[in-house]
Amino acid sequence: MRRGIIAAVGCLLLSGKAYAGWYQVKNYEGSIGANPVHLSLQRYDGFGSGITVEGSYFYDAKQSPIALYGKADGTKLTLCEIADEKELDRVLVTGSKTPIDTTGCPLSLDLSQSGATGIWIKGPEKFPVVLKQVAGLDDTAEGKVNGNVEIPFWVQTAVHRFAGIFTKTNAGICMTKLQVINKMKKKTVQSIRFDDADCNAGMLMTPIYMNVQKLGEEIISVNFRGNGGYSIEYGFSLKTKTYHRLVH
Fold first, then answer.
1. Cβ–Cβ < 8 Å for 220, 214
2. How far apart are CA 162 and CA 183, in angstroms?
3. Per CATH, is 2-134 categorized as 1.10.8?
4. Which residues of 118-145 are buried (b: 16+ CB within 10 A; e: fewer)?
5. What single DSSP character describes residue 183?
6. Could you give the CA distance from residue 9 to residue 55 in angstroms, rounded to a whole number?
7. By the number of CB atoms within 10 A of the CB, which of 76, 106, 167, 243 ranks highest?
8. Where in the chain is the domain with CATH 2.40.128?
């Protein structure tokens, strides 16, 4: 997935977003129909193919993150879901110059100051969406963090999903720890902390949800800004049942 990092940064350079401080993220909790969900959205002035919103959400019962992308028209959003890793690579990692078409995409939202309402439609299924805004971050100006900002990364394994805890430190906003969450148990089983005085973890200029990536079934990489951007790899140990830093 290193190629994906380079491609995504290239898209940002072409779109004129090559500067420090461009994350605008809001997190929501609520429901789609009767099913509780957590949803996170990142807004853009423009990103590849006419995309102005990307996001990640999961049903609490399944804990499997679903990547989102789409367009904003004022407070109204139309969002498409990514079906698999091949589509994720084609649409959001590699990107395309062809304008996206959100016709038929399942999720429509109308944002307010406190949350969002809308509808999810796929085939014969149709469910109301009710969301409450619970947290957010904005590092485009002086830098603000509201609430407990937990970013559900797109990457997952058969057993785990990964969420970054983003806070504001003396050096700025960054990911201070990475939560490894067992999807079946629905709980955090490991926290990887970053002793990063420069506050660079999770802040490479990609979509924020791509700042942790999968290199193999049990190997992930964490992205850092600074020095042109770099990553640190972590592998899963069958012996300890935890992820540990890999040294090459």
1. yes
2. 10
3. no
4. bebeeeeeeeebebebbbbbbbeeeeeb
5. T
6. 17
7. 243
8. 2-134
